[in-house]
Every structure is written in structure tokens, then in C-alpha cells.
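Preliminary data (for renewal application), fe (ii) ion complex.
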Amino acid sequence: MNLAKRSFANRRVLLASDRADRSEDLAAILVKAGEVEQMSTYDMPEDPAGNYAGVVVDIDLSSLSSVQMVRRKLTSKAYEDVPRLFVLSDALHRESTQAWSLGATDTIRWPFDARAIQQRLAMSFPEREEEIEAGVILNDGVSAAQDVLVKIFDKLPAGVPLTFKDISQAEDKILKSLRGSSLRQWLIAINKHHSRTFRHSLFVTGFAVAFAQHLGMRDSDQRRLARAALIHDVGKAFVPAAILDKIEPLTPEEESILSAHARVGFDTLGSQGDFPPEMLDVVLHHHELLNGTGYPEAIAGQEITDIVRMITIIDIFSMLVEERPDSPAMSHADAFAAMENMKDEIDQQILQAFRPIALGV
Ligand SMILES: [Fe+2]
Ligand SMILES: [Fe+2]
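Predicted structure:
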């Protein structure tokens, strides 16, 4: 993945224009390099506060009033560090002088040449180092999690044993990734994953670690939650893809094959030898409900441990907000409200503690 390009695409370009006649063409070119926010020079924010990769100014540089409007903004302290590209209509010396007096980083010319503009853009609006750094850290964490999921969902059913170390060695990078970047960035990065099962486990992992960090848990507890999230659906490795990826509603028989993943996962993990009881507990019980109506053992109340309660809440929330082929994803607010309506099925106290994470992204 080209990190520089990706982090650029995550920042917007502000297109300040009073040239409605031609700025549409310019916007169409800029949008290929990232998000574009077009506005009149009058509407330019007083404080861009790091929201923009840079400003492209397309105004009539021969008009005094146009120049004055943008001068006030661009010469202010708030715009000091914002790179700016000016559009020149022709080779008139006066226009380029104006542009340089307004602190032009570079200029581009009308009529527009898409390739040239994109090159200038890439040079004039360079990535900030810390953003590239955050992108690398994010990527490291996502890749580490993905590597684990390959071992769980691809290699394990093919007979390659899974060890506790396979899971735990990814924890550092995942924790660091969510500390150094943000849950939002994590979710954006994983949302394009082709496999619904991978995507789901990556969602649960992101939410679980962000939740643990939000609660100020010790590092060792953050790790416990990360590994529980990664492993919780291990049993799905043995559910046929035709069921996991089926778009239409499942038949009762398919439902029961899918539901068996909790038990299958528990048996599989148990036979691998070195997994702590707590992880086996999560794998077996993450579909149990506090009022005893869950599966596979229909245990209730105090029989359900805290870590299982947390994973259950995160698991349900993730399922609701993930994009699905058969229905649009639920908004985070709707998903949270639906879970409040689950009343005594889930731990409502933990759910409330989860609220800032659920609604914060
Ligand atoms: Fe599950
Ligand atoms: Fe799950």
C-alpha cells in the first residue's frame, strides 16, 4: 500500500474560488488526488487548524477586491503553515506577482492540464512526517492482526497447528497501532477487506483495544482483550464459506452449522494445547446472554465472566455496524440504541462504559 498517497487522500484540499466559470473543471482534477472542499474566498474558515493538506486559490488576480478578500485570510497566523497553489489565467506578470505576494507555494495555469496539476499538488502539499509515521504504525498493526487471522481462518483448517504465541506476538503492534493512530483510521483501513469474516474479526479487535485503552486498562489487560477479540470466532474457520458469505437468509440447518462455531472453536483451541482457559472461555461463551437465552450452554448471570461480557457487547455492536451485502450498515447510534433495548441479555453497565467508543467514531 502506498502510505504517502493514502494519508494524503485522508486530508482535504480547500479550493477557494470566485471563478465559478472554471473551478468545476479544476475540482474534477483535484478530486482524483483526494477529497476537495470548494468554497468562495469569503467562506474560507478563519482557522483551518490542520484540516487541509493545502489551499488551491482560483480567483481573479487582477481584481483588487478579490485579492483583498483572500489576502486577509492567507496572511493571517492561522494560515501560516498552509501551503497554497495559485491558478494563473495567463502569463501576465502582474498576476504571478500577486500570487507570490500572497505567499504562493507554486502556481498552476489555466487552461488546466490534469497531469501537471496533480504533480504540482503532490509537490506543494507534502505529507507531514507525523502523519506518515502514524500511517506506518497503523499499517503495522492491521497487518499483524491480518497475519493472525490468516493463521486462524486459512491455515488452521488446512491442518497447520495454531499456537498461543501465534496470537500473542501480534498484540504489541495492534496496541501500538490503536494508540498511535485512531479507531476511526483503523476501521477505515480494514473496511475494505474482501473477507467478511476477516473484516468482522478486525472490527472486533479494533473496538476491543480502543475500549480497553479508553478504560485505562493496564497493558497486560489490553493484550487479553486484543487476543480474545482476535480468537473469538476461531470456530468459523470450520464453517463452510458458502454459509459464512451467504447473502440470502440462512436456512435453519445452516443456522445450526453456523451456531456450532462456538463449540467447534472451543474444541479446536483446546486440542491445540497451550491456550489459557480464559481464551477458551471467550471462544465457547461469546454468544451466551446474561438471562440464559444464549448458546451453546445457555449459562447465565455470574457464570459469564467479565471478559466474555465485554467481547459479547463488542461482537454484537460490530455485527450491527459492519457493512453487509444484504443490508446497509446500521449507524453507530442506532446500533447502540438497539443494544440498550437488549436489556438484561447483555451487561448494560459495560454497554454504557462502551458508549464513548461506540459513538465516538
Ligand atoms: Fe461468534
Ligand atoms: Fe464474532
